[in-house]
TrEMBL record, chain A:
Provenance organism: Citrus sinensis
Domain P-type ATPase A per the UniProt entry, residue ranges: 100-162
Entry's EC annotation: 7.6.2.1
Requisite cofactors: Mg(2+)
Reaction it catalyzes: ATP + H2O + phospholipidSide 1 = ADP + phosphate + phospholipidSide 2
Keyword entries, A-Z: ATP-binding, Magnesium, Membrane, Metal-binding, Nucleotide-binding, Translocase, Transmembrane, Transmembrane helix
Active site: residue positions: 381 (4-aspartylphosphate intermediate)
Domain P-type ATPase N-terminal: 5-70
Protein name per its UniProtKB record: Phospholipid-transporting ATPase
Annotated GO CC locations: membrane
Bilayer topology term: Multi-pass membrane protein
From TrEMBL, chain B:
Species whose genome carries this gene: Citrus sinensis (Sweet orange)
Protein name listed in UniProt: ALA-interacting subunit
């Protein structure tokens, strides 16, 4: 469903879409009671208790005072209802605060201060520095002459770095007055919850110069709940308002997770219910028989000779009422109560506070603590989870020469420093790519030092390294980029940025040297995304070797490459790129295809190696948890060699004589099938031996295995205690979790980045590391911890305590109920 | 979520306050069952329980008790095959004489009980059929809702005392004589004081009682309920189907080998439901009536404990782990 938004048109767009009125409330004053009761009664247990309570009102059959059931029932309902009401009231208050906030909006060509809830789709909203964005806007103007503004998106995705947002080309250079009168149409898809995508088009109406269709991406929008930073003012057109904003759409109620104990309790309840029915039938019949044969002889009881038919029901129903307390009415409430206490214990734990940032651990999901003790498989991410995600540039290989091999630090390698001073063109080019080909934003601090704001840790490391090697990225103003090299200032104009996606595995920029006017393409990316596209004459063997060598040391490698682009070629390609960027359907795929057309015949410059240290206590943690019988799988997007190296260094797998590593690879179905069968065979043989056998699989083979040989792979998954999956995409991670869950294993997924979110949400328990890659994973997770090593305490202490306590409480509840019930029956 | 800058400022407040509870470090104690602990506990328990048991048993032995079941014997030979008819027939002579010898000297007071078996005073329909309000005060005379099916007469007049319990009041009587001399039976102060003073009103007089369908004993309508002690005793319902209820007290000592003659008015119908009736004479000691159960239990538990203690000691000596 497409939207056509008429900018600044007070008549047409008024009532087409909802106003910017936030409402997260579940209830209103009027419907609270019926709605809440309805919700509570949709649970089977509550229906059962209501039935019992109603039966008790029939005084002929009730053996006890009806208050004994009605009292607890009403109390429990009141507790749940009060909690709901309190939550809802708080939501109402925060909604009200947001709705009544005052913002500047253009109405009839004049800027007016109105309440946030009166913003309509199509209105132009003005924001000043540090304002919160009231609804999803398409930028049309900023105070910056280049049309850039900075936003902090922490509330949206948890990432704390500033992001640049651009005004669309059509609005570029419009002055302050004009922005009040601007008219146009924005074409965009209906509201959705993807905060990384916005595929729209903008067409300004005739009085304005440019009436071409101008593509809009997520880069041109500022979304609700972001903050405007480092920009004096900005204005934009409201496109999604109220509950239809991206944030509003994301806000869903997550599906409640059920723990093993909960499932057990449900089963037990069912069993007890059946037992109860049996007791009722047996004793009820016996009672009726006794009454008919014996009780009539007891003259002092004075039974009437004739009775209505329902008298037959009286004794069974009486027994039913007596037995009704076999099912403890309070178990849900008491379990909820103690579970929230377990969660508090996790929040309070001094031993799980990250010493660096002083962040305590946090249990977002309070209901599943005891499942921690039931975990059988842990699926862990590598970068940022096992490692610190603090990237340091260590080595590089430029044009076949290795730097940093002796000292372990390329920045201090004399050879490299000499090469720079002597002005070796390859080295200079290499450093230029390091400094230019990225999305890092340099920002000057008050003291004059340059701070780099980067979304990717690798890029930050590269830019820092380049700066230390005298190639300093100084300034980035929209499209002009300034670099200081040995005292001279070089300027580049960035023509296009071909962004990084996990499918492409590389990013490129097209830049124009402002001095010479030459256009060139600078690329960096994973080896398999760069080396195959090297131009025909170049020998890439040394680079392959370099990559091999570095990854065996557990370093992360990136290949850098460049090529010159002719003016004509660029112009031609640029048109295609523009077209692709303004498509509404399959934009990502189209762009990737167009990018491919430019990224070929690359001259490979060299390979960088970045170190990512292991976090403290990782090997010990893994060791202990494995002793506790928990199986580990490592799922990473990194290269196989790096992954294996890390796995070795953190006790994940044992070195050769004790352990054995089997690899599943192959490019075609047959190859994968054969190697899968081979591995499976070895695995079956070695299960009896005391040997650590692990298998390694890469993303490609995994894809095939999951698609065609699911059964064999599942068997392998069951046999293997350890597995390393490298080069896997976020959705494959989630698939693996699904696979293990389908074998009835309790899984725990731990990760820190946005690419782990899906696996974290899929797993029985998701643990997020509130690390340097933002808080996305921590937000999606059930538990967030500061460091990987806290996992040990989380599982072995909190999990065990919670499980024991829950088990004790529920067993005691049942015991108590049964005991009371038997006393009553007898 | 605050950015990395603000975390540094807030670091103090983000750290939760320390307490032993929040860190789950509260002192805890768990007894480890070492042989020493176990053996000494068993010995102590055994040494305490066995003497208590012996004392209880001894006290119980000093009690002299005479039990005489008379429900069969008090049916004339002609009616042995037709007991129900005999008991229901108002014309038959229900008097019956029983004699028995006193085995040991019995010191006064000697308590007289009647004992019924297979009589369910705890039947739900029966036990609920009374009106405590009505029993308590004159003004609640019409309070008969709970008394069904024995709440009112056929003319819709309320029965006082109403209900099945009162209606089925035990109506056998006993007359005692030793060596041709009548023994005086004191029937006062056989009910609980609290019942007489509070639960049964001094201004409530029987009315419409045992009119029409007669169940058990009739009451003298000129005596208030608080002084109808047989009724008060009967209305304190028994929990089990075999029970004794106090009939009266003999305040003379009985010597060993005295022959007691009892003239029983055998009126109460236990034949319908195959119940039994017995007459019980018993003295008391500090432990109450004759009851070996307590003593036997104490001795058994104490004995088991001592036995286990000895076994453990032997095991510990012969085959320590």
């Amino acid at each position: 469903m497409k939207r056509y938004i008429y900018i600044n048109d007070d008549e047409t767009s008024q009532d087409l879409y909802c106003a910017n009125r936030l409402s997260n409330r579940k209830y209103t004053l009027m419907n609270f009671l019926p709605k809440n009761l309805w919700e509570q009664f949709s649970r089977f247990m509550n229906q059962y208790f209501l039935l019992i309570a109603c039966l008790q009102l029939w005084s002929l059959i009730t053996p006890v005072n009806p208050a004994s059931t009605w009292g607890p029932l009403i109390f429990i309902f009141a507790v749940s209802a009060t909690k709901e009401a309190w939550d809802d009231y708080n939501r109402y208050l925060s909604d009200k605060k947001a709705n009544e906030k005052e913002v500047w909006v253009v109405k009839q060509g004049i800027k007016k201060l109105i309440q946030s809830q009166d913003i309509r789709v199509g209105n132009i909203v003005w924001l000043r520095e540090n304002d919160e964005v009231p609804c999803d806007l398409v930028l049309i103007g900023t105070s910056d002459p280049q049309g850039v503004c900075y936003v902090e998106t922490a509330a949206l995705d948890g990432e704390t770095d500033l992001k640049t947002r651009l005004i669309p080309a059509a609005c570029m250079g419009m002055d302050f007055e004009l922005l009040h009168k601007i008219k146009g149409v924005i074409e965009c898809p209906g509201p959705d919850k993807d905060i990384r995508r916005f595929d729209g088009n903008l067409r300004l109406l005739p009085p304005f110069i440019d009436n071409d269709v101008c593509p809009l991406t997520i880069k041109n929008t500022i979304l609700q709940s972001c903050y405007l930073r480092n920009t004096e003012w900005a204005c934009g057109v409201a496109v999604y308002t109220g509950n239809e904003t991206k944030l509003g759409m994301t806000r869903g109620i997550p599906e409640p997770k059920l723990t093993a104990v909960d499932a057990m309790i449900d089963k037990l309840t069912g069993a007890i219910f059946v037992f109860q029915i049996v007791v009722v039938i047996v004793l009820g019949t016996a009672g009726n028989v006794w009454k008919d044969t014996e009780a009539r002889k007891q003259w002092y009881v004075l039974y009437p000779q004739e009775f209505p038919w329902y008298e037959l029901l009286v004794i069974p129903l009486r027994f039913e009422l007596l037995c009704s307390i076999m099912i403890p009415i309070s178990i849900k409430v008491s379990l909820d109560l103690v579970k929230s206490l377990y969660a508090k214990f996790i929040d309070w734990d001094y031993e799980m506070i990250d010493p660096e940032t002083d962040t305590p651990s946090h249990a977002t999901n309070t209901a599943i603590s005891e499942d921690l003790a039931q975990v059988e498989y842990i699926l862990t991410d590598k970068t940022g989870t096992l490692t610190e995600n603090r990237m340091i540039f260590r080595r590089c290989c430029i044009g076949g020469i290795f730097y940093g091999n002796e000292t372990g630090d390329a920045l201090k390698d004399v050879g490299l420093l000499n090469a720079i001073t002597s002005g070796s063109p390859d080295v200079i080019r290499f450093l230029t790519v390091m400094a230019v080909c990225n999305t890092v934003i340099p920002a000057k601090s008050k003291a004059g030092a340059i701070l780099y704001k980067a979304q990717s840790q690798d890029e930050e490391a590269l830019v820092h390294a380049a700066a230390q090697l005298h190639m300093v990225l100084v300034n980035k103003n929209a499209s002009i980029l300034e670099i200081k090299f040995n005292g001279s200032v070089l300027q580049y104009e960035i023509l296009e940025t071909l962004e990084f996606t996990s499918d492409r595995k590389r990013m490129s920029v097209v830049v124009k040297d402002c001095h010479s006017g030459n256009i060139s393409l600078l690329s960096k990316g994973a080896d398999e995304a760069i080396l195959p596209y090297a131009h025909a004459g170049q020998q890439t063997r040394t680079f392959v070797e370099a990559v091999e060598q570095y990854s065996q040391l557990g370093l992360r490698t990136l290949c850098l490459a460049w090529r010159e682009v002719e003016e004509d070629e660029y112009q031609e390609w640029s048109l295609m790129f523009k077209e692709a960027s303004s498509t509404l359907i399959d934009r990502e795929w189209r762009i990737a295809e167009v990018c491919q057309r430019l990224e070929h015949d690359l001259k490979v410059l060299g390979v960088t190696a970045i170190e990512d240290r292991l976090q403290d206590g990782v090997p010990e943690t893994i060791e202990t948890l494995r002793k506790a019988g928990i199986n580990f799988w490592m799922l990473t997007g990194d290269k196989q060699n790096t992954a294996i190296q890390i796995a070795l260094s953190c006790n994940f797998i044992s070195p050769e004589p004790k352990g054995q590593l089997l690899s599943i690879d192959g490019k075609t179905e047959d190859e994968v099938c054969r190697s899968l069968e081979r591995v499976l065979l070895t695995m079956r043989i070695t299960t009896s031996e005391p040997k650590d056998v692990a298998f390694v699989v890469d993303g490609w083979a995994l894809e095939i295995a999951l698609k065609h040989y699911r059964k064999a792979f599942t068997e392998l998954a069951i046999l293997s205690r350890t597995a390393i999956c490298c080069r896997v995409t976020p959705s494959q991670k989630a698939q693996l979790v699904e696979l293990l869950k389908s074998c009835d294993y309790r899984t725990l997924a731990i990760g820190d980045g946005g690419n782990d979110v899906r696996m974290i949400q899929k797993a029985d328990i998701g643990v997020g590391i509130s690390g340097r890659e933002g808080l996305q994973a921590a937000r999606a997770a059930d538990y967030s911890i500061g460091k990987f090593r806290f996992l040990k305490r989380l599982i072995l202490v909190h999990g065990r305590y919670s499980y024991n306590r829950t088990a004790f409480l529920s067993q005691y509840s049942f015991y108590k109920s049964l005991l009371i019930c038997f006393i009553q029956i007898l | 979520m605050p950015g990395s800058d603000s975390t540094a400022h807030k670091s103090k407040s983000r750290r939760p306050k320390y307490s032993q509870f929040s860190q789950q470090e509260l002192p805890a104690f768990k007894l480890i069952l070492t042989p020493g602990y176990v053996i000494s506990t068993f010995i102590v328990v055994g040494l305490i329980f066995v003497p208590i048991g012996l004392i209880s048993l001894f006290a119980s032995e000093t009690v002299v008790e005479i039990v005489d079941r008379y429900d069969n014997e008090c049916i004339p030979k002609d009616f042995r095959d037709n007991r129900v008819e005999f008991i229901k027939n108002k014309q038959t002579n229900k008097s019956c004489t029983r004699t028995f010898t006193v085995p040991k000297q019995m010191k006064s007071p000697i308590f007289i009980y009647y004992q019924l078996e297979n009589f369910y005073q705890n039947h739900r329909r029966y036990v609920k059929s009374r009106s405590d309000k009505q029993l308590q005060s004159k003004k609640n005379a019409a309070h008969i809702r709970e008394c069904k099916p024995m709440g009112e007469t056929d003319n819709k007049d309320p029965i006082i005392p109403c209900g099945l319990i009162a209606w089925s009041l035990f109506n056998d009587t006993y007359g005692f004589s030793v060596k041709g001399k009548d023994l005086k039976v004191n029937k006062r102060d056989i009910a609980w004081g609290s019942d007489k003073n509070y639960k049964f009103g001094a201004d409530v007089f029987p009315k419409n009682f045992q009119v029409g369908d007669v169940g058990g004993k009739s009451l003298n309508s000129s005596i208030p309920l608080s002084e109808q002690e047989d009724l008060i005793v009967w209305m304190r319902t028994a929990a089990l189907s075999t029970f004794r209820k106090l009939y009266g007290k003999i305040e003379d000592d009985l010597q060993a080998n005295d022959v007691i003659t009892v003239v029983i008015e055998n009126n109460y119908n236990t034949y319908d439901f195959k119940g039994t009736k017995s007459l019980v004479l018993s003295t008391t000691s500090w432990i109450g009536g004759k009851n070996d159960f307590l003593g036997v239990t104490f001795i058994t538990i104490g004995g088991i404990c001592l036995f286990l203690a000895i076994t453990f000691i032997l095991l510990y000596v012969i085959k320590p782990r």
